[in-house]
């Protein structure tokens, strides 16, 4: 949608305030389920691929390898994931989501998405579907742009 002088706003200028509002709306949900934002990000990554090495997981979620260890420790202590040694490389650890981790992730995701419905409800159904489809394509293509 063009601005007053016919130019469109930058994507970051449009998305950043929306992202901040969405993250803020997720915080009470995460607290109610005993998760940090990083914990939720890790569980979400493991839902997509249930077994990853710690290093691959850190790279996938965009976290520093040393920073993610504390998050993994918390999730493991809560029974949401396990970190057995990699049989192919005894120096590495695999990260696997547990049944409880999957249940908690899905509960948080369902609650978050219920909250998102208020925002998405502002759009006509066709625009809403186009937005969700477009965001999925862009998110899937991002890693290929590096």
UniProtKB/TrEMBL annotation:
Domain HTH marR-type: 8-140
Pfam family, one: MarR
SMART domains noted in UniProt: HTH_MARR
Protein name (record): MarR family transcriptional regulator
Organism: Lentzea cavernae
Taxonomic lineage: Bacteria, Bacillati, Actinomycetota, Actinomycetes, Pseudonocardiales
């Amino acid at each position: 949608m063009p601005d007053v002088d016919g130019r469109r706003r930058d994507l970051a200028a449009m998305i950043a305030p929306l992202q901040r509002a969405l993250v803020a709306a997720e915080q009470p949900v995460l607290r109610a389920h005993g998760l940090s934002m990083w914990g939720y990000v890790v569980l979400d990554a493991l839902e997509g691929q249930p077994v990853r090495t710690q290093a691959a997981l850190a790279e996938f979620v965009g976290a520093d390898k040393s920073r993610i260890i504390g998050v993994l420790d918390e999730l493991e202590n809560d029974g949401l994931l396990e970190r057995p040694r990699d049989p192919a490389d005894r120096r590495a650890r695999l990260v696997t989501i547990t049944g409880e981790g999957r249940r908690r992730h899905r509960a948080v995701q369902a609650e978050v998405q219920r909250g998102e419905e208020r925002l998405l409800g502002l759009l006509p159904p066709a625009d809403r579907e186009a937005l969700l489809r477009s965001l999925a394509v862009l998110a899937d293509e991002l890693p290929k742009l590096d």
